[in-house]
Structure formats: structure tokens, C-alpha cells
Amino acid sequence: MFVVQMISVVGFACIMPFLPLYVHALGTVTFMSESLCTALVYSGQALTMMIASPLWGYLADRYGRKVMVERATFGGALVLLLMAFPRSAEELVLLRMLQGGISGILGAANALVAASVPRSKSGFAMGLMQVSMGVGFALGPLLGGVLADLFGYQSVFYFTAPLLFMAGVLVWRFVDEQFVPRKIEGKKSINIFSAWKRVSRAPGVGLLFLLRFINQSGRIIYFPILPLFLLTLIDNPEKINSYTGIVISVASVSTALFSVLIGRLGDRSTHQKMVLFCLFGAGVVFVLQSLVQTGWQLIILQLFYGIALGGVITSISAMLALFSEEGDEGTVYGLDSSVNAGARMVGPLLCYAITSLFGMRMVFAFAGALYLLATILALSLLPKNKPFNS
């Protein structure tokens, strides 16, 4: 699953550096402005994923997590191929919404891994999965930016669609899941609403979902303006796609390098301590990013942000496994994916509003404030004791 998730993330992340520029190249054919379409390219995909993910998670607990990973990879490959042929920015928005509804590889993969490893090793396991995601996000934007500069935007989709298809084949051929549906009190199966209710009421889980929402909002909020912000910091704008890919990749590399270490430290002490330290660090780094004057300053701060991000993501994922019951992995990580998607829907819209009112630098300052708020919430409300599944 490490390899499958890494390949899948490379495929999806390849398109991230140039999406705002792809919208500009396609142009609009309706009343919608390019700025609005840029926000919707991110938020529309997140909206459909937010709606679909809890359902996919419930189906994973009923019919198996492996088939959900196959659905995400094969479905994602088809949609990425179609993205090479839109005739307008509006059509690209619709395809991104379709992608959100049928993909969702991260939640499906995390559910499969969480169901397969001992809970006492969840931090290490989720750290490894975060490494695969970090490597994917490091390679994907860099490859996508270079391919877009050399061969044009369509070439990137011709590259990414086969990657997703190959990941699906690897799951189908080599992943073996010994799946047993959950039984409760003599019932043949649990219904979707009782599953959501039970998971949401588990101690600490609701707060973890809130922390996940804040973290993902901060992580995505600056993406729509990143190429434009970099244009104000660099001297050679003809390489903007490559520069954007480098900035994203630097954070992803540091995330990958430190995720397993932080996950291991959380297993040995507590993940509560790790998430507090990393949330605070992310907040400070984002405030500093609002003050940068050169591209290199932004790159260095992104490196430190990646370290903090790896700790936040890994610790929250591990605590979700520890605070929930066995057999609920699909539901838990389906809801987690929905929360992630909701944040990715809200983040670009907040970016659009903040940029319009206060300018691009305030987007980074706002993200820093979000992380500092999350630190206060975690310090005040997160259970201090070891969870019952530890």
C-alpha cells in the first residue's frame, strides 16, 4: 500500500502547480470569472468528495477496503485522462467535481492499513503512509511543473492517467485483504447512520475531526494564489510552473522525511504531545511566510512547514485509529476524508475572499492564525490520557 499510495499521489499531485494557469489558458464561456473558476476547480472537487467519502467509507466496512482502493485508482485514472480535453474552464470545474466523487485514494488506503496493523503500531504505520504521500507530493508537483513547461498542460494528464491505472492494477494483483464484516449485537450488519453516530460520539474523535479541518484548511488555502504570489518574488516568470512545483515539493519532502520519526515518537510517548508541538510550529511558520521578500525565503519556510505538517497529519491519523473501535476503520477514515474535503472546499473560497479584500500576504497570516487557534483547542480539549485502544 505504501507503493500504491505513492504512485497515486504522484498522479494526482502532478496537476497541482498549474491548475490556476490551466484555467487561464482555457478561458471561460459563461458569466463566471477566471478567479471564480480557479477557486471552484479546487472547491468543487472538495465538495463532491466531502459528500461521497462517508458513503465510500461505510461501504468499505461492509464490502471490503481493497475494492474501495480499486474504485479510487481506476476511477481517478479515467477522470484524469478526460481532463486533457476540456474546452473551457467551466468544463474543467465539472471534471474536477467528478474526480472528487469517484476518487479519494487517501481515505481508502488509510482505512485498509488501519484495519491491518495492531493499534499500538498505528503511529508508525500512519507515519509510513504519510511518507508515501509526502514522496508523492514531492515528486508530483515537480514532475507536473517541468512537463507543463516543456510539453504543455495536456501532456501532464497523458502521464498521470496511466500512473493511476497502474496503481489500481497493483492493488488488484498484489494486495490481499482478509475482510470480515463487522457484526453488532446479533444484527447482520450496521446501517450507515448508526455507524456515523457511534464513530462521532467516541471520546476525542469529534475534536480530531475539527483539528483535521483546520489543518487541511491551512494547508490548501494558499494554493490558488501560490503561482501568482511567486511571480512577485522571482525574476524569471517564464519558469513559474517549475518554481511552483519546487515550493510544493520542498514541503512534501520534509513531510515525508519526518513523518515516520514523529509517528514513532508519538507511539512511545503520546500523539497528543506531538500534535500540540507541530500545530504551534505550523502557525509560527505561516506567520513568517506572510513577511517573505524572496522566493528562497519562502522555500526555506516551506521546508519547516512540511516538518510540522507531517507531525500534524500523522498524529491525527494515529489518534483516529486509537480512539475508535476495531471494524470501524472504513467509516472513521471515510468521515476523515469528508472533513478533509470540506476543508479543501472552504480553503480556496477563503483565499478568494481574503485576497480580494486584503491582498495575497494576508492569506498566509490567516493560515497562521488558524493553526494557532488549533493549538489552543488541542491544549484545552484533547484527552490527556492514553486512549482505550492503545
TrEMBL record:
Annotated TM spans: 7-27, 39-60, 67-85, 97-117, 124-144, 156-175, 217-234, 240-262, 274-292, 298-323, 362-382
Major facilitator superfamily (MFS) profile domain boundaries: 1-386
Recorded topology in the membrane: Multi-pass membrane protein
Keyword vocabulary terms for this entry: Cell membrane, Membrane, Transmembrane, Transmembrane helix, Transport
Entry-linked InterPro entries: MFS (IPR011701), MFS_dom (IPR020846), MFS_trans_sf (IPR036259), Tet-R_TetA/multi-R_MdtG-like (IPR001958)
Keyword rRNA processing among UniProt keywords: no
Compartment annotation: Cell membrane
Gene Ontology CC terms, in alphabetical order: plasma membrane
Molecular function, one GO term: transmembrane transporter activity
Signal peptide residues on this chain, from the entry's feature table: none
Name of the protein this chain belongs to: MFS transporter, DHA1 family, multidrug resistance protein
